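Tip: read the tokens left to right.
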């Protein structure tokens, strides 16, 4: 049965690509290495946390690594790998039937970033397997980092990678310069300028490349016939490729993977040119109808002699030739990513680099021979831009409803039933507040949010969002939630500095807008400039865009088109592709900026909404309209002239006045902003720490109660000093000692039992008797003198427990 006629079985599974337990069983052998320069260094990444950083959700992370003789601070941010919804994985049964799986894709474990102190550095890491696996470029030197096997201390190995050519003859791309020229000429003739004009936004700066990768049967066998291992390897490679292409402002999306797990569906030989033709023919017959794509590449475990890959040039949007073939021998995933990026560069219309091309390194990505550079040259940029008008398929951003990011614990997003979500297991290990099962750790009240600090919810009255302009309002924590209240601001239409009006947190005035663009000396030009420029209907003067043309402003709207400035002292350095222009007519000079089709950066030169355009009139959406547009039932009178209205049409009271209407004394704020600082903070602290404050008073109360109970005990009856001891005491040799009444002649029951017990310690201390004791001794009754010698040995033994103090003896 032909492949195209094979019965298709679709399986919708929840196959999770976390792969943790499976991949750890086989160690790290499945992740390849590049050409290492010398032995590795052992490093232990140390996470840098602070009062502020440590409380942030999985966003920017900071790690310290010491290698190469110095300390490196890595800044990295999780990047969600965009895949289609649903993401497709195609395989085959042993009868040749096509299977389609839609697995959950773990996409929160891929990181991009930079090294502190080196703005040209690059960090590309994956933590999907529980440690850092990836590549660092620091000061033009490439390093590979991966976890050290069987390490219980989070140790990693860092290798320095070669960039020199070490093979002879050198491995190179399969395209010759003649073939590149021939293909480009063919592409341009077939596409023609009509393709350019048929798309209104071909100047778009951000491009979107939707890709499918196909893996051959030999590579499947090499990966232990395990589809999960193949997918994990592909994602690792795609993460690297995405970093390289992002320097061209290209956003790579992986739509699907096909694994030839039963046999190769085309003949795979060392003739790479024929393989490319056969693979593209298969793609058109089989894959084209199954999954929409911009580009498809075939990863083949095949030796092509000195060739590493082959692709059609400038073919990215051509269904007949938007494909390529790449050599994936061995385990060097870094080299694979360089090879695939190079061939994709050809698909994007790039030529091979010539000697005059430069990227800051000796070799660039499009160097015709194997090189491990991560940057495109100036020549690559130029050739891509030359072919860019024909890349119509790359202007369409993937629709948000078709972007699949995965749900469930571990995706970095707190969802229903979760107290927190710290992302991948490696991140949860070091997160101070959140555990891997999306529950808060013991003692933690929160794990993220502007009102969460050191895992505790901040007290009410703690400012969580500062006021950032005169048209903004502050917000405070409420003491019960880790989240800051909704951002509220001054009601639109409230007058502000410079004769402007507040609109969506900004005070919009022409002079201030000119100062922001052209410097503090500049100011808004006269009305003649606005009339002259905004009546043109081009990119320098217009009232907006409509389809493929600019809108010329109506006479009533000239002041609401593009801002025109005067008194400009210097030309500003502006971001992106913004163009500064000036015109001089009738002795009047007008300065402004352009904004053309496809620009994705904010337009700094359009007159902002809320800008005055006449008496009682303001600009809204490039139209000059009456201020009645901002009609509201909230006004200063509503707030008793002691507050201002916010965008919710509620009063935000001045300090010392209480919302909602600012008529009673209070602490200010609004019903939307949370409680401002004041009595609430002290009340909260007393409420939180009240039991601790009461504890000392409770102890004091119990002590007094016990003392009163003791003092209220009924004293024992006085014993007559002539009372004779009981017969039992006589048998024990115990004598009752009479005591003079002036010393307190109340003999306790204990003394009645023990009698006058003389301890050995007392005998030893007898010479140290104080004067008081001598006085007391003089009061000893004759009876005691008569009986003193009758103390038995047993009583002497018991007497060791008697205090040497005479007072103690007499009070017992």
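Filled-in amino acids:
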């Amino acid at each position: 049965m032909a492949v195209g006629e094979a019965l298709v079985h679709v399986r919708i599974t929840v196959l999770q690509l976390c792969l943790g337990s499976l991949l750890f069983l086989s160690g790290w052998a499945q992740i390849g290495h590049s050409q290492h320069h010398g032995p590795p260094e052992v490093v232990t990444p140390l996470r840098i946390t602070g009062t502020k950083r440590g409380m942030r959700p999985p966003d920017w992370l900071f790690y310290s690594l010491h290698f190469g003789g110095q300390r490196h601070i890595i800044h990295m941010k999780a990047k969600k790998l965009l895949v289609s919804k649903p993401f497709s994985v195609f395989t085959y049964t042993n009868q040749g039937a096509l299977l389609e799986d839609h697995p959950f894709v773990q996409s929160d474990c891929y990181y991009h970033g930079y090294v502190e102190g080196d703005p040209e550095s690059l960090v590309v890491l994956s933590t999907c397997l529980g440690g850092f696996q990836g590549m660092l470029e620091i000061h033009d030197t490439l390093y590979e980092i991966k976890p050290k096997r069987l390490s219980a201390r989070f140790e990693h190995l860092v290798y320095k990678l070669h960039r020199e050519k070490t093979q002879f003859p050198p491995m190179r791309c399969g395209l010759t310069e003649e073939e590149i020229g021939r293909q480009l000429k063919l592409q341009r003739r077939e596409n023609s300028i009509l393709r350019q004009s048929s798309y209104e936004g071909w100047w778009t700066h951000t491009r979107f490349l939707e890709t499918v990768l196909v893996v051959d049967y030999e590579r499947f066998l090499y990966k232990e016939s395990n589809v999960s291992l193949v997918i994990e390897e592909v994602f690792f490679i795609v993460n690297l490729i995405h970093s390289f292409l992002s320097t061209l402002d290209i956003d790579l999306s992986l739509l699907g993977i096909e694994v030839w797990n039963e046999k190769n569906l085309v003949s795979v030989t060392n003739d790479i040119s024929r393989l490319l033709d056969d693979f593209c023919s298969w793609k058109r017959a089989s894959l084209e109808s199954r999954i929409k794509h911009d580009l498809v590449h075939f990863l083949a475990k095949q030796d092509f002699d000195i060739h590493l890959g082959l692709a059609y040039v400038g073919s990215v949007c051509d269904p007949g030739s938007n494909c390529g073939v790449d050599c994936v021998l061995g385990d060097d995933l870094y080299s694979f990513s360089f090879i695939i990026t190079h061939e994709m560069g050809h698909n994007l219309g790039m030529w091979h680099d010539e000697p005059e091309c430069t990227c800051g390194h000796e070799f660039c990505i499009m160097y015709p021979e194997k090189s491990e550079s991560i940057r495109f040259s100036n020549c690559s940029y130029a050739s891509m831009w030359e072919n860019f008008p024909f890349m119509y398929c790359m202007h369409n951003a993937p629709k948000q409803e078709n972007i699949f990011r995965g749900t469930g614990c571990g995706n970095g997003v707190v969802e229903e039933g979760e107290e927190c979500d710290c992302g991948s297991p490696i991140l949860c290990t070091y997160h101070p507040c959140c555990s891997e099962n999306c529950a808060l750790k013991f003692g933690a009240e929160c794990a993220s949010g502007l009102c969460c600090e050191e895992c505790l919810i901040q007290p009410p009255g703690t400012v969580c969002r500062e006021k950032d302009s005169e048209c903004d309002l502050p917000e405070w924590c409420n003491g019960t939630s880790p989240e800051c209240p909704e951002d509220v601001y001054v009601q639109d239409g409230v007058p502000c500095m410079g004769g402007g009006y507040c609109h969506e947190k900004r005070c919009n005035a022409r002079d201030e807008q000119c100062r922001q663009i052209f410097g503090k000396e500049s100011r808004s030009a006269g009305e003649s400039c606005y009339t002259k420029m905004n009546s043109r209907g081009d990119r320098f003067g217009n009232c907006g865009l409509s389809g493929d043309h600019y809108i010329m402003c109506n006479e009533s709207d000239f002041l609401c088109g593009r801002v025109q400035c005067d008194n400009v002292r210097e030309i500003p350095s502006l971001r992106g592709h913004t163009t500064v222009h000036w015109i001089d007519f009738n002795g009047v000079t007008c300065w402004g900026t352009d904004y053309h089709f496809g620009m994705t950066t904010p337009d700094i030169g359009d007159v902002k909404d809320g800008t005055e355009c006449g008496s009682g009139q303001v600009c809204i959406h490039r139209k000059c309209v009456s201020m009645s547009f901002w009609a509201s039932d909230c006004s200063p009178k509503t707030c008793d002239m002691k507050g201002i209205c916010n965008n919710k049409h509620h009063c935000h009271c001045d300090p010392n006045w209480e919302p909602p209407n600012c008529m009673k004394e209070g602490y200010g704020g609004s019903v939307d902003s949370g409680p401002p600082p004041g009595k609430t903070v002290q009340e909260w602290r007393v409420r939180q720490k009240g039991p601790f404050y009461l504890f000392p008073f409770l102890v004091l109360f119990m002590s007094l109660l016990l003392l009163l109970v003791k003092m209220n005990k009924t004293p024992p009856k006085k014993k007559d000093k002539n009372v004779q001891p009981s017969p039992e005491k006589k048998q024990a040799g115990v004598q009752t000692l009479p005591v003079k009444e002036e010393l307190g002649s109340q003999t306790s029951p204990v003394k009645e039992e023990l009698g006058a017990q003389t301890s050995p310690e007392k005998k030893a201390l007898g010479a140290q008797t104080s004067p008081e004791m001598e006085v007391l001794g003089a009061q000893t009754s004759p009876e005691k003198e008569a009986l003193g010698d009758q103390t038995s040995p047993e009583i002497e033994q018991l007497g060791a427990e008697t205090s040497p103090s005479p007072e103690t003896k007499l009070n017992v």
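The first helix runs from residue 20 to 25. The chain has a mean pLDDT of 76.
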